[in-house]
Amino acid sequence: MRNEDQYKIDLEICPMPVLLVSSTGEIMRTNRRLNDLFGFAHKELVGQQIEVLVPEEVRDHHPDLRDAFFEVPTRRGMGTGRDLYGVRKDGHTIPVEIGLDPVEFHGSVMVMVSVVDIRERKSNEAMIRRALDAASSAMIQVSDSGLIELVNSRANDLFGYPAGELIGQPIESLVPDRYRRRHRVYRASYENDRTTRSMGRGRDLFGIRKNGTEFPIEIGLTPVEGMDHLSTMATIIDISDRRRREQHIARKNAELRRLNEELLQFAYSASHDLKAPLASIVGLLTCCEKDLTAGDVEEATANIGRSKMLADRLAKRIEDMLLLAKSDMVDATWEDIDIASRVEQIWSTLDHYGVTLVTDFRHTAPLRTIGARLDVVLENLISNAIKYREESAEENIVKVETSDGPEAFHLSVEDNGIGIPEEYRDRIFNLFQRVADSHQPGSGLGLALTKKNVTHLHGAIALESRPGKTVFAVTLPQGRSLTQKDRETA
Ligand code: ADP
After folding, report:
1. Fewer CB within 10 Å, N or C, the chain?
2. C-beta 420 within 6 A of ligand 1
3. pLDDT, tens digit, for every residue of 252-304?
């Protein structure tokens, strides 16, 4: 049998579509399966360039690839790593897999091209992909050697990668640097005990996005058996929101614990603080009884007057305590404050006892803060400045000054009053703390209330004092420079 006839027979009995192509790209032979696959009649392709079967996008470039093959003709698959397509006579493209075999024909080297129609496989793959992409969880399939084989679109979105970029990369590229080494060890131990389970029980797991940001995740692992190797499907859930909620609850719990402790301390101190004046009132009323029995109306009237005064103070104290109790529940509305009008308004509600108000407002931007809290601060500092004036001074002055920077607002209330002895300075911000020989009525709550409100506003308060000069300096962050979280906890 002639060589050529032998090829003819070989081509026809070959169970897959094949064609013989010369080194110049001319189609020399095709079998029926090939003609059927591409929709050509018998012999219709013979004599044509192989490029008629190549999609238009790669057609121009194809002769170069062909030349490269014929430079070193070896048996191999074509287009490794790329999706290959052939063009049918009717112009439709079909996905194919192609094998190349150099053969000798009529004394020249040619290539026997075998074509595998992979339409069904591709359509199954597409179906699986659609199902994976429809899943609400991020899914990544990893081979037993740790390489990413499959990524659904949710996973690409979650980690910030364009489709396809993660394929073939080690799974460790999605693990933050500091966990990478350990991750390889965990993966190896998983390979010895492949079961469906969640990953990293008892450990916090993190993923890293393409842009380098980390986020907490939860991972479920399911072993998958492939044709020739084992893989694992990892289902990944971004738990950032849950973590944020947990942290929020933890913060709230800590705050509740603090408030409870404060309440307890408050209850102890309050009962102690209220008992003494109550006992005095009871004592005075007992005296009244005796005075009336003895017919001493004048003394009885005087004692009633004293108990009334004590009762008034007590009422004021209770009012202050209520203010303090309520100070954690202020409506946290952040607003731009007009300090001048706030100070003026507060000043107008106070008895001045001849004290002069001096203001020096040097701030450039309005203070953004919670007005209700700022009022408590201003009112207490200004009323104390009046209350603790030096009676013998030529002139009593309260000076309110402001200044600001990009991040902070400074407010100070200064007086030329009696001053606060050194040994009391640490204590006076605590509940019910008063300077021992203070002759002024008060409950020792004003500065505690002031400090509490400044703290709520994420600010700080400092004190400088000597006889003739006391300055309370408050530094408040500008509300707009605070984070949302800070604002919520104010
Ligand atoms: P209260 O005025 O009701 O005693 P505060 O908490 O407002 O309570 O103040 C605590 C103490 O600090 C006061 O009793 C007073 O002795 C001292 N103090 C506060 N402000 C001044 C001031 N501007 N000058 C001098 N002493 C002050």
Report:
1. N
2. yes
3. 999 899 888 877 777 776 776 678 778 889 999 999 999 999 999 999 999 99
**Is there an atom of ligand 1 within 6 Å of 446 CB?**
yes
DSSP, collapsed to helix, strand or coil, labels residue 95 as strand
Check residues 23 and 227 and name the one with the higher pLDDT.
23
> How far is residue 349 from each of residues 216, 217, 328, 344, measured CA to CA in Å?
54, 57, 24, 9
Q: Is 434 in the pocket of ligand 1 (CB under 6 A)?
A: yes
Instruction: Retrieve residue 312's tokens.
Output: 């008034």
Q: How far is the CA of 390 from the centre of ligand 1 (A)?
A: 13
C-alpha torsion sign, points 54, 58, 63, 68: negative
Rounded to the nearest angstrom, the distance between the alpha carbon of 321 and the centre of ligand 1 is: 16
Read off the pLDDT of residues 47-62 as tens digits, 9 standing for 90 and up. Answer: 999 999 999 999 999 9
Ligand 1 and 317: CB distance under 6 A: no
Reported residue count of the chain is: 490
User: Could you tell me if the CB of 376 is within 6 A of ligand 1?
Assistant: no
CB distance 459 to ligand 1 below 6 Å = no
Cα–Cα distance between 260 and 387 in angstroms, integer? 32
Alpha-carbon distance of 428 to 435, in angstroms, equals: 8
Q: Is the CB of 479 under 6 A from ligand 1?
A: no
Find out whether the beta carbon of 386 lies less than 6 Å from any atom of ligand 1.
no
Helix (H, G, I), strand (E, B), or coil: what is residue 111?
Answer: strand
In tens, the pLDDT along 356-376 reads 999 999 999 899 999 888 998
Burial status of residue 97 (CB atoms within 10 A of its CB: 0-12, 13-18, 19 or more): middle
Measured by CA distance, the residue closest to atom 3 of ligand 1 is 442
Residues contacting residue 161 through CB under 8 Å, at least 6 positions apart: 151, 210
Residues 6+ apart with CB under 8 A from 322: none
CA-proximal residue: ligand 1, atom 4 (nearest): 444
Beta strands in 118-182 (DSSP E): 138-143, 148-151
pTM to 2 decimal places: 0.50
Which DSSP state fits 146?
A: S
pLDDT at 480: 66
DSSP string, 347-389: HHHS--TTPEEEEEE--SS-EEEEHHHHHHHHHHHHHHHHHT-
* Residue of 314, 391, 434 with the most ligand 1 atoms within 8 Å of its CB, for mutation: 434
